[in-house]
Design a protein that fits this description.
Layout lengths: L3 E5 L5 E8 L3 E7 L2 E8 L2 E12 L3 E2 L3 H8 L11 E13 L2 E10 L2 E16 L5 E12 L18 E15 L2
Antiparallel strand pairs: 1-4, 1-11, 2-3, 2-11, 3-6, 4-5, 5-7, 7-8, 8-9, 9-10, 10-11
């Protein structure tokens, strides 16, 4: 297979995150608006071009007050930093259909390298003859490294919001003609 452009099918894709709340439970959320550019040979991603742009105002944690707080200057400050971006800079094959995709992640005006473990889940033809590929990815970042430092102390000790954020990505992409 040769290198091709793959368009993300947002209706069959998701960008989710998990963060500790009150040091004992986890809050999950999604970003509903994102776009990706993937130019790759799905049989060998090592020279792929991968770029993501996420509209941070599209955050959804199923609680409007929390979402509005996350959009505020205390966290993402979407008025000044409306997007989160990721541009792959190094892709290393780690196993059959598995890769470490390292790139520059930019949030809140701060850019740092982050690595995602990515799996090519498969490539098939849909009922209309179109080539479709599936990708899964996961990674972790420390939100404070990106200037997202707001927190509140708990009366019993500890803090309200955890520092580590786990990210899960599920992509379905259609090969472009």
């Amino acid at each position: 297979m040769t290198k091709a452009v793959w368009a993300v099918d947002k209706g069959h894709s998701s960008l989710e995150f998990t963060v500790k709340h009150m040091m004992m439970s986890k809050v999950k959320g999604v970003f509903t608006e994102f776009d990706a550019t993937v130019e790759a040979d799905v049989n060998d991603l090592t020279d792929a071009k991968i770029e993501f742009t996420v509209d941070l105002s599209s955050i959804d944690t199923r609680k409007e007050d929390r979402d509005n707080h996350l959009r505020s200057a205390d966290f993402f400050d979407v008025e000044n930093y409306p997007n989160m971006t990721f541009v792959a800079t190094n892709i290393k094959k780690t196993d059959e259909n598995e890769y470490d995709v390292t790139g520059d992640l930019s949030i809140h005006g701060v850019t740092k390298p982050v690595t995602f473990e990515v799996t090519v889940e498969g490539v098939h033809k849909d009922p209309w003859g179109n080539e479709v590929a599936g990708f899964s990815g996961e990674g972790k970042l420390n939100r404070k490294e990106f200037g997202l430092v707001w927190n509140a102390a708990l009366e019993t000790g500890g803090v309200l919001v955890g520092e580590d954020v786990k990210i899960n990505i599920e992509l379905e992409a259609h090969k472009q003609a």
